[in-house]
Design goal:
This protein is an all-alpha fold and 149 residues long. It contains 7 helices and no strands. It has one domain. Helix 3 packs across helix 4.
Length: 149
């Protein structure tokens, strides 16, 4: 693990970069969570009989969509809207996918399906935050690129 961290230029004590990466990850988590959990809740409340795999696939797509929308809105304060959208699409898709997969995996493993409960939501959010955090740190440290601003 230490060799991998060294090869990726990860310094576990670099507090300013970890803080920035954590803030960036929280913004991405907010965007992903809205679409993801909204989709799961919709199917849970309506009782539409889709398979767990279909619901989770749609939840991931909606989570990615809402995250890109949120990032576009945030970035549009700093640049033209079309450039903000292109930047949001290209910035952190790997991070968002890791976040979505982690959140949905925790949900399925903890509840046995696509179900939101008050006790599973914090676990989903924690998994969604931790899964992409090292990648977001690396992007910021090695490439100078953040997943959000």
């Amino acid at each position: 693990m230490a060799a991998i961290a060294r090869s990726l230029n990860i310094d576990w004590t670099d507090r300013p970069v970890w803080r920035r990466a954590s803030i960036n990850t929280c913004w991405c988590l907010l965007g992903c969570s809205v679409g993801d959990m909204g989709t799961i809740l919709f199917f849970q409340l309506t009782g539409i009989p889709w398979s767990t795999l279909a619901i989770m696939t749609l939840a991931i797509i909606n989570g990615l969509t809402t995250s890109v929308i949120l990032e576009t809105i945030i970035l549009s304060r700093q640049m033209a809207l079309n450039l903000a959208f292109k930047t949001a699409i290209g910035m952190s898709f790997i991070s968002m996918i890791a976040m979505e997969v982690a959140m949905n995996t925790v949900d399925v493993l903890a509840t046995g399906g696509a179900r939101l409960t008050l006790w599973v939501i914090p676990l989903m959010l924690l998994a969604g935050f931790l899964a992409p955090l090292p990648y977001n740190y690396w992007r910021l440290k090695a490439l100078g690129k953040a997943c959000c601003h």
